[in-house]
Amino acid sequence: MTTTQTRGLSIGGVPLASPLVQAALSGYSDRAMRLIARRHGAAYAVGEVLLDKFVTESKRGRKAAARLAVAEEEHPVGGQLMGSNPDDFAPAARRLVAEGYDVIDINFGCPVKKVLGRCRGGYLLSQPATALEIVGRVRDAVPREVPVTLKMRRGLDDSPESRNNFWTIFDGAFARGVAAITVHGRSVEQRYVGPSNWAFLAEVKRHAGERTVIGSGDLFSAAACLAMLEETGVDGVSVARGAIGNPWIFRQAEALLAGEPLPPPPTVHEQREVLRDHWSLAEAIYGEAVAGRSMRKFGIKYARVHPDPRGTRDAFVAVKSAADWQAVLERFYTDDGPGRDPSLDIDETGDCG
Question: C-alpha distances in angstroms, 222 versus 162, 226, 251, 300?
Fold first, then answer.
């Protein structure tokens, strides 16, 4: 633990206050979620994955701003790109830099079937030459002071060929100038089934030496974040599904890193304040109608921390407006009391981070 604190974490020339990172989460890690995470102790957050062509073809306006804009409060912040054609990555990376992103991340990890079918995300782990061409194009496209990073899984599957491809991309990406690589301990074929292979993460970090490696997979509690740091030696941890509806995981992990006792789950009133803030941020970004649709999925996740998770979840499912959201708060969050540990309810929510 002391070693982790002393060494700290930086991504290229971008220093981070702690090794605690909020991962890119498709459909979740928008500006509102990133701000909530940063306010609760995440040292760095990565935006939801963006298709390269969406980034380059989006016209300026509210819709594009909702997906691309960066808030001053959230720096440093990373923007994640996904695609299949190396030609499309460079202009998209330049656009993200122009929008204010401090780091450009490339997704070679998404295991979603339709993504793989379009030769994106985790599929590129089977195509080392294409993957490394994409890395080189992005690194050459953005200023040297802007770090470029990768998100990988440990391979497409468990075959020797897949393992060889992993190391070819891993070493080749660092040789081409990436500042850090996040490695998820599952294969693409595995998706979210079965445990993340932390032993593989430890092997990766031993191989990497002084190069920056961030670990990912099965981080559903503050204790798990600390355990990954200690057991694998990775430089940082990237919390994905474990942060949805539970931004308190970052403050809890900060406490453990400082040698302090694990803080209890947030009280009902503490949850209520975050729910109010999250709604306000989403409404400011999208407008009430879109926020009503997008915030339902967050409410469902926040319900896991509530002492009545089932009833609260069912109430959030019906939310369509600000009045509906407020009604849930008045019904379930008026009386204070202790919260519950959401890591008791680990689910299979997918992400492309």
Answer: 32, 6, 8, 21
